[in-house]
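#struct-help
A.M.: can someone run this one for me? Single chain, 210 residues.
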Amino acid sequence: MNIEWSQIADCISDQLGEEVNLKSSQAVSGGCINQAWQVTDQNKSIWFVKMNNPNRISMFEAELLGLQEIIKTQSIRAPKPLCTGQTSQHSFLVMEYLAFKGTPDAIKTGIQLANMHRHSQPTFGWHTDNTIGSTAQVNKHENNWIDFWKKHRLAFQLDLALSKGLPRHNYDSGLALIEQVGNFFEDYQPIASLLHGDLWGGNCSSDENG
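D.P.: on it. Structure tokens below:
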């Protein structure tokens, strides 16, 4: 695998304002769609580097912004992102390396997520689109949850599925469901809260401090 580590080191150097030379790299688990590496510099600082095809750079740029948004709430720990960039072979995201240990405390995690959800805004959506996995996710602002969920989650994904070969009768059933979404929210009006957006077991862990 041809990885241009010197260019990734340059990205880290530019962000830190000091020269960084990457001395070692080790492949680690990093999700189902990315390559991931644990890298160490001349000062024995350790970084976590995620890589994908060069055309995936916008995915990593949005992930960096998302991590910054979560960290800003001071509610639940997330790895600090450092920089994103491209080489001729890869796009990449460099972030803080966290050593995982043990199983997350479910109650503590729930409390921390609840605190994150208390960070709200007037409208549903976000200032940039992002991805769920490698699939595009539209975050245009809407004044209410039902419109946002119908247009930018269900309908968008349904149209994408149709373009990938979803049978027309399944598509029509999906449209019928979308028209009924409001019935689930007759007695409840969600608040526009900050969500992780791809929260599953593989995106939650703990370190030696819990």
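A.M.: thanks! Residues 145-163 form the longest helix (19 residues).
D.P.: also worth noting: The longest strand covers residues 22-28.
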